[in-house]
Amino acid sequence: MATSSAYRRFIETTPVKYYDTLPGSEAALIERIRDFETVINIRSSTKFTAGVFSACPRLKLLSLWGTGTDNVDLAAAAKHGVTVVNTPGVSAPAIAEHSLMLMLAVARRVIANHNGVLAGQWPRGQAALLHGKTLGVVGLGAIGRRFAKLGQGIGMKVIAWTMHPDPALGFELVELDQLLRASDVVSLHLRLSDQTKGFLGRERLALMKPGAILVNTARGPIVDEAALIEALRARRVAGAGLDVFDVEPLPAGHPLTKLDNVVLTPHSAGIAPEVLEAGLALAIENIGSFQSGKPRNVVQ
What we know:
The protein is of the alpha/beta class. The protein has eleven helices and ten strands.
């Protein structure tokens, strides 16, 4: 945080109490923020529950770094008069690039080949060509649209399903079942909500091609993790590139770590110095907009 120019400018004019560690409990979070009207949160693992909002009556604005709101009880925030804002779009380039990397790493068996070379082997002929194959993008927000363009850039045919279909988005829109049956790669770009939790369950996973790859840089619980592991073990899904999981950090000895057809990264798709700076700058700008009576990027 100290290296951020946006943060340094902010603290020149605004009194700030900064914490560089997770609170660790609801009680500790309440203790930290109960006396403040505005809070910036940059950790999606910090939960803003009904209990937190109830215990912090002075709180008026919660400014989130990022787009995900699954760590915030939005109904409770509204009940207690707290405005919640976020930073849409700032991490889209990084997450789209990371999604592309995961897709290519699984298709080209990068991890297995790397480990083989280190072991003195010379593995050959294990890669899948993606040029000319079908990429199914689930969710056409800022990230999904950017990733779809990257898929087109390497010669893939892109089809998409989104909760708010609009032909102006510029991609061929199909029904979800059709997308799952037709795609050689399925990539998820949805927000986690009650509507999307378990969205890709056993039945929908069974619709995917036996040779298909799944990419998830959205949120772990969007996929039925146990069903996915079962499908990966049986090779009903050929491989998966995963940046998000049900439990994070991923516990030692987790079944996913024992599979040879996955590439796993530590919820890091949106992390890059440029993204962190842009996100913090927008989170700070959102505070100024709120205080001037013209709030922007309001979630609710």
